[in-house]
Structures are given as structure tokens and as C-alpha cells.
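job 3f2a | input accepted
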Amino acid sequence: MYPFTLERPASVADAAKLATAGGKPLAGGQTLLASMKLRLSAPEQLVDLGGIAELAGITKDGDTLVIGAMARHLAVANDAAVKAAYPALADLASRIGDRQVRAMGTLGGSVANNDPAACYPSAVLASGATIVTDKREIAADDFFQGLFTTALEEGELITAIRFPIPKRAHYEKLRQKASHFPLVGVFIAQYDAGVRVAITGAGNGVFRHTGLEDALNQSFTPEAAAAVKIDASDLNSDLHASAPYRANLISVLTQRAVRAALG
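job 3f2a | predicted structure (263 res):
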């Protein structure tokens, strides 16, 4: 690593000042610290958000779950309110990475990083969640902008994410065994306003699949999902899986997710 200083603010306001001045926010550190060890990233100042208690809360507010940006994956997976109100979200959190990642990784860190194969962005997008920052509120549909790119401005900090509680939801993924990232992950959520389907691991960032959404709005059944042709032309193809294979996975995992959501 290159030399750096470490700041530990006790409030969001203090953290925001440091971040605005050029400090690099440190959430769970599961991506940033690894990048620093490889000398792929060399921030001169880290702003550790771990000491800001107000960023770690999890509460249920009517038909919405409000989860703090510094809530660890393990905390989300084990929280009684999340397990009761939104079990698909708790299940997703319980299967992220390995034990160390779940113990240290955070919701806000994952969403801000926006790895194209991360699990959490699919839940945020499929839920039509709202990302709350120290400056504003951003709809999920406007937040994710491509490979490791989001709508966050320089120095802007995620403070919480608001998840509307769906009628039904489920997350299915096929894990790449070496990295534990999904080759493809599919999160479906059904609301009174309609079904939302978000795909991770298959493209240049998380995305919604309108064809699957339209079919499932007509008939929320595995058969309806199976009838949708998945275009492979814009999907990833690499040493782990070809684009046609990922297209097939999207179809198969969506069918499984619908079947599980129906119970």
C-alpha cells in the first residue's frame, strides 16, 4: 500500500466534510482495501464510517424497510424485522460472499461500489428502492449507471436505503465458485403496481428486464417466464460463461424465483 491517513468521524456531517475535501469513504472495505493492497487504488486519506452509529440502524416504517448504509450483510440477514417483512432480502444478504464478507461488508458500500456482479444492487433495483444520501434522495432507476458507476456526486455519502415491502419476492443466483460472485443473479419483486425483475452478473451492471416484467404482469407463473426469449447480444461473455449461457441462466433462474415466490 501507499501511505495514507485514516480519519474516524463520529457524525455524518463530519464525514461529509472530509469526503467533500477529498477523503475516500471506507465502509466495509471488502473492495477498497483489496484494491489498495494491489496498488490499484491509492487514496491519500480514508474516512472510516464505522463509528457513525446512525448509519447502521434497521427499522420498519409502515410498508417500508429503512436500512442504514453501514448495516452489515450479517445484520440484515439476521434482523427480525427484515426476515418477517422482506424474507427475500434477508436471504440475499445471508448468501453474499463468504463469512468474512458478510461480517464486514455493508449495504451502502456494495451499492455505492456497484460491481456489475454484486447481489445487493439487484435487490435495490427490483424493489424500486430509494437511495438516501446526505444531500438528496435518488430513485433506484436513476441510481445505477453502468460499470462501477452511479449517480453519486463526488463526496456524496449514502446514509440509508428505503425498501418498499413487496407482496412477493425471491432472489436466485448461480454462484461462481472461486469468487462467490453470481455468474447471474435474478431478483423478482411483485407489488400492486406490477412486477420488477432485476438482473446482476450478466451485463455491464445491474439492469431491469422489461420482457420478463411484462410477461409476469400478465401471468405470474414460471411458464410465463419460460416463454420469454432472452437476447444474449448485450450480455457478458468471458472465461466463466458465454453470453448464450448467461441468457439461458436468466430464464432458468427467473422461473425458479417465480416458483419459489409462489411457495
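job 3f2a | The two ends are 49 Å apart (CA to CA).
job 3f2a | closed
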